[in-house]
């Protein structure tokens, strides 16, 4: 169904000039369609340093919440549709991306995840002389039945941010690894991504978050240095999707390293499943929350690849990954200990009755939709519109 975005702009009042609690809550909205996306934005006047996140949402209603930092919001309208690739032609609202420029993911929540407090002396810098002038809360509603007529119920889900106006010595950032692709029917399949880290800063991962939809079984992330694989984090995405402490304490990532992630799926359905923005599609995300000493974070925020059937770690050409050293636990659920072995292949029987040309087109459009849903900007929208 369609995606509808409500964007309500509110200026931070002088009471937050010295920090405090900042509520980002939906203003009693009534989403009317499954897979509706709603956004609420706050303009920032002064420098603030975010040190904690308290969610106010239930997984029965909200599929996920994402907090973005933006240079400018997608439109100046009070209400507009920025579900982008999940939008419908009969939407009552103008269309636009979540951010018109400078989109950065700051925080993510799903599956009734608890609150998060950052380590001592670490904060996300926003407002003031930072490149973030707006905070935008995005909520993906998966079940809107309780908001439909004749019900008068409304929703005020959102986040409470703990902030301070005092500069802190370590600045937090997010690096997101993800994959597009298609899962063959009745199979266990991997979606893999990897990128060389070519930054002039050293980042220190402190926590990680995984995200898939219902078919995901394990998501794992790694740093590869001189051919040695070191785990950053590994989790079942069916557990509460908050940020967890990294599994290798005191790990760092520096220029010349490689970052890699794998999402492992069990597609029990009798048809292929694509990556996409709705709850019936799939996603593959591994978020790294990190800090740097000082205020210069990594310029690159994302690492995406096209996924199966076209991309796996075998296709990486940015350095020596030493694939013989992939940890045997890369697809092992750390909660129950079950190890998932890939069974998918590229046969027409598993991928369905599609010609290669049809498969190329569908997978490319799926990939573009996926990038647009996670990196909302004008370039990804134009790429999709012009394909």
TrEMBL record:
Pfam families: Cu2_monoox_C, Cu2_monooxygen. Its cofactor is Cu(2+). It catalyses: a [peptide]-C-terminal glycine + 2 L-ascorbate + O2 = a [peptide]-C-terminal (2S)-2-hydroxyglycine + 2 monodehydro-L-ascorbate radical + H2O. Residues 328-358 are annotated as: Disordered. InterPro entries: Cu2_ascorb_mOase-like_C, Cu2_ascorb_mOase_N, Cu2_ascorb_mOase_N_sf, Cu2_monoox_C, PHM/PAL, PHM/PNGase_F_dom_sf. SUPFAM superfamilies: PHM/PNGase F. Cu(2+) binds at residues 63-64, 140, 211, 213, 283. GO terms for molecular function: copper ion binding; peptidylglycine monooxygenase activity. Belongs to the copper type II ascorbate-dependent monooxygenase family. This is peptidylglycine monooxygenase. It comes from Patella caerulea (Rayed Mediterranean limpet).
